Structures are given as C-alpha cells and as structure tokens.
C-alpha cells in the first residue's frame, strides 16, 4: 500500500468545489447549446476560442504555457526540481458534434483546479505538474480519435493524420496549422518528452458506477477498438423505371451487410461486443435515384481483442464475397489497455480517502468502455484513470451530466494522486 503523503492530503483538502463548478460552467460557454449540451468539435473556431480562454486561465495561475506540433496545449506548474520529468494530468478539449459539458472538459478543468488549490495551500512539489488539453480525442470531425495523444507518444504518427479531411473537405493539417498560427506567442515543446506519470480524470459515460451507487471508479483498463469504413458500390438509376431485378442498388447491399454485422454482434452478446454503424453517406442522396454508392462507418469494441479478430475476419469475408462491389478500410485499431498495479493502488488510496471523508462507499475497479487519451499515454509512462458516475449512463449527448458532489470527489482524488506522484 502506498504511504499516505501529508502534502497529497493537503492538496485534496484544498480543492474548492464552488470554483470547480463555475470553471466547468465557464468552459461550457464555448460551444454552449440551448439544449444544455456543447458543440465544440476539434480545431473549429469555437475550439480555438476555448483554447485562448484556457491559456489565459493557466497564465493567471502562474503556469508556463506550451504547445506541441499536434497543437496539444500544456500548462506547467514548476517543481522544486524543474528539470525532472513532470506528472501530467488533463484530458481533451474537443467534443462530439453534439456533446455534453463534461466529456474531456472535466479532466482539463480539474487539472487547473488542482493547480489553483496547490497555489492556495502554498504547496510546492518536487516535480513539475502539467495540465494538458489534447487535440482531437473524439475523432468525429477528423478520424481517427486520440490523434493528439497518440502523436505525442509516437510523433511519426502525425504525418499519417495530416491528410484526414472533415465533411467539408478541410484537411486536418490545415486546421492544425491555423490553430498553431492563432497562438503565436506560445513556445513550442517536444512531443514524446519524458513524463514521470499520467493520470486522467473522466466521466464514466456508462451506467456501471451509478447502478452500483459508488461515486468513484479506479479504471483498470480500456477495451479494444477498431474503426472501419465500408463502401458499397452500385449504379445510379431511375427509381421509378428500373425493374427490381435489374438494379445495382448500393443501399440494398449496405443494408444486407449491416444486418449480417448486427447478427454477428448478437451472437457475441456474451462477449459484450459493441457495434455501432454511426455515419452514413449516400450518393447521390436523392429520393428518386437508386443509390450509386453508400459508405458507412463501423465502430466495434470488446475487452477481448480475439473477438475483434473474428469480427474483422467475418467483415473481410463478407466484402470478399461481394467481389469488387464492397471495399473496406480499417482506419483505427487499438488493443486493450491495462493500467499498472502501482498506479491503481495509489488511485485506490486517493479515491478511498475522498469517499471515506464524505461518508460514501469505497471506490470500485471498473474497465472503460470508451477510449481515452490515457490509452496511448500508457505506452509512454505509468498511467491511470479515475471515473465519476454519469447520470443514466448517458454521454455523447447534450443531456450528459454528473452529480456535482461526485465531480468534486473526483477532483479531490485526482489532487491527491497527482501531488503524491509529483513528490516521488
Ligand atoms: C471516445 O469518445 C470514444 O468513442 O470512446
Ligand atoms: Mn472523452
Ligand atoms: Mn467522447
Ligand atoms: Mn472519448
């Protein structure tokens, strides 16, 4: 068991709940929607405005601000031995097309709240502490997701991301350059630089903690994920005149494929396979023209990567059976992530103290259904995550919410963890 550290306890006790809640509300005004959600897709003008705001907040807290080649923003609070690799916390600033106030934003705001609390309490740490706002975690505007964190860990990946385009054919590389140009005074920092540890605080985005009635989760790992684009090729023709048996209808092919994929998912329900066909593009998308081309995305996830191997073989088999009329591209793949035991023990102690002080049940271990930037950081340094419950398990939805007291407990647990790591 991790020895309890006095300054870690002080940092935990210095978290200011009112300031935390108002910081979450303030960041949510960037892209805030009338339905209570947030639309702040990566590298849009709204995302850039929110980055300027975060930079101001960090500077006001006395942080040094830095940016890397993937426009990941770092806010650094100096340590007594400033040359030592820092402890990193934070999350992503971008949202889904229709997202909530918390997915990503919570972890970034939490990091700044910890720095404010350390300042208030006059606590200095051995190592520097950095708060990060990663670029394009969501992957909804430019695929794949977790671009910023994966490029940080392996900068050779960045070149492969630059030509990704959004639905208006804007290149990721151009959007990235515009983001870097918009903060000319911010010094550049190295990607892949040494970090002593990384901790990400995030909402669960699923129903497990809420159903268990437990306010904090110690995340043991993240399930595997693969993303594909499936394109069905047919021939455009007149809807009214073309006999049914003479059509090459790309939609009919796509629907039949989709049904088989859902069938595969149903037979793997015991493995908790999760399948989403989330984005569809129909060409020419006209009421009275037989679709000449249909493209759809496949997001498939499972804790057991061998189940995804079987899914992929099944999908490739279906494409092969269709001859040249179905093409397939895998554009994201990640095996399961397992966080290291010493990090889990530290988080268990930190979260356990926060829960005990509030008279609430002890934290529970949980695996993450969503992917996160911490997934790639785990390849680079000792990494772990803390979860707070999501009301009704809802996320990637404007209605995403968490009890404010749970949000507070999560930041308390993070403060303890980060401070303890920064003194090791
Ligand atoms: C990230 O948002 C995910 O899809 O898990
Ligand atoms: Mn997220
Ligand atoms: Mn998300
Ligand atoms: Mn995510």
From TrEMBL:
Annotated GO MF terms: hydrolase activity, acting on carbon-nitrogen (but not peptide) bonds, in linear amidines; metal ion binding
Organism domain of life: Bacteria
Domain (Peptidase M20 dimerisation): residue spans on this chain: 225-318
InterPro entries associated with the record: Amidase_Cbmase, Bact_exopeptidase_dim_dom, Peptidase_M20, Peptidase_M20_dimer
Record's cofactor remark: Binds 2 Zn(2+) ions per subunit.
Family matches, as SUPFAM superfamilies: Bacterial exopeptidase dimerisation domain, Zn-dependent exopeptidases
Binding site for Zn(2+) 2: 103, 138, 396
Cofactor: Zn(2+)
Pfam family of the protein (one): M20_dimer
Binding site for Zn(2+) 1: 92, 103, 202
CDD domains in UniProt: M20_bAS (cd03884)
Classification via NCBIfam families: hydantase
Name assigned to this protein: Zn-dependent hydrolase
